[in-house]
Design a protein that fits this description.
This protein is α/β, with parallel strands linked by helices. It has two domains: 52 residues; 281 residues, TIM Barrel. It has eleven helices and twelve strands. The strands form two sheets. A ten-stranded mixed beta sheet has the order 1-2-3-4-7-8-9-10-11-12. It has a two-stranded antiparallel ribbon with strand order 5-6. The structure holds S-adenosyl-L-homocysteine (SAH). S-adenosyl-L-homocysteine binds next to strand 8 and strand 10.
């Protein structure tokens, strides 16, 4: 596989163009064109510069291979990378805009028991440009431009653990936020982590005030270890300290993902324990009923149990919402589409 031109920042493009003897404004042109989802071969630059780029860089590092439309309007995308690897992403329509969920790795090695992304482990990390390319491609397909984006919000909640691919993810975020490109505001970006504490702390110092989301899914370390192997490395107490540090550095409240799993973490005692754990903290809880994964024997709770859990949190003063499960008819949950595809279904 050749290199990925979309990995480069505007600054890096500038020195590339300069070294190639091109005029300085070409860098901005290339940056804009790539952010618009254009291939190198269709960039509006002189052909000698274009050919030089094509020698070293992939013409189209992320290609939309298939699109699946759900009854609720959610779209699921299957992307093909230059080396033939497949990744997936989702575009969800909300009243306030369109949220795209992107993948950060091919597969995942975190091993969460309820997640389809991790079934075959991690194949490789995505480069910064391969993460960005997912958004540029979808924005273009949906008829968006740089000024009038069809993708208004971005969540790093697709396959992969963002903080297990730290450098590339930070590079991607800086290019996503950069002026002259897609220019997405940090407050419209959410990054979800299973709780890699050292990286959470490091990220707090990067000066990117996005919505930090932590997949908690349990109220005690013992219970968390049953579904999330990462709980053997870091305790909930350490996660909460890292969250507090993030708040101190950015002023942004943090969010916990809590998937309600039947017979595992969804009883009233869990709701009470969760409320006690989070009482008085500047945080929000996102509840969702676990999306059943065929290869896993865990299932979500029914709607009534989920509503009761939500009520129990709210009545104890915890800010919480129960998210609708979207796109479940098209394999909306993490890694389901790729898993199905790999099996040739
Ligand atoms: N690795 C990161 C981001 C990817 S997963 C993380 O762990 O946060 C995005 C979210 O989807 C996480 O909260 C994850 O726990 C959750 N998730 C994974 N499989 C799910 C399923 N089958 N049903 C509901 N949520 C799921």
């Amino acid at each position: 596989m050749k290199e990925v031109l979309q990995d480069l920042s505007l600054e890096e493009l500038s020195s590339l163009v300069c070294n190639a003897g091109g005029r300085p404004f070409r860098a901005k042109q290339i940056f804009e064109g790539l952010m618009q989802g254009k291939k190198i071969s269709s960039l509006p630059v002189p052909s000698d510069l274009r050919n030089l780029l094509l020698e070293r860089y992939e013409d189209e590092p992320v290609r939309i291979k298939e699109v699946f439309l759900s009854k609720d309007g959610t779209k699921k995308f299957l992307f093909e990378l230059a080396d033939g690897n497949l990744i997936e992403g989702v575009l969800m329509h909300y009243e306030y805009g369109n949220t795209q969920c992107v993948s950060t790795q091919v597969g995942c090695r975190m091993g969460c028991k309820f997640c389809a992304s991790t079934l075959n482990g991690r194949v490789r990390d995505l480069t910064a440009g391969e993460i960005l390319g997912q958004i540029a491609a979808v924005n273009r397909m949906e008829g968006g431009t740089l000024k009038e984006r069809a993708v208004t919000n971005v969540v790093l909640m697709g396959s992969g653990e963002p903080f297990d691919n730290y450098e590339n993810v930070v590079k991607f975020l800086r290019n996503l936020i950069a002026e002259g490109g897609l220019h997405v505001s940090a407050r419209n970006i959410s990054l979800s982590t299973c709780g890699l504490v050292p990286e959470m702390r490091k990220f707090a110092d990067e000066g990117i005030p996005l919505n930090l989301t932590v997949s908690l899914h349990a109220v005690s370390d013992e219970e968390r270890r049953r579904t999330m192997p990462v709980a053997n490395r870091y305790t909930i107490a350490e996660i909460l300290e890292a969250c507090a540090y993030y708040f101190e550095k950015t002023g942004r409240r943090y969010i916990f993902e809590y998937s309600l799993i039947e017979g595992e973490n969804a009883d009233m005692v869990h709701a009470e324990a969760l409320a006690n754990l989070l009482k008085g903290k500047p945080c929000h809880v996102n509840l969702i009923r676990l999306n059943p994964v065929k290869e896993r024997d865990l299932s979500g709770t029914d709607e009534r149990t989920a509503q009761a859990f939500l009520k129990a949190l709210l009545s104890r003063g915890i800010s919480a919402t129960l998210r609708r499960s979207m796109g479940s008819d098209i394999g909306g949950a993490c890694g389901q589409l790729r898993a199905r595809y790999l099996k040739g279904e």
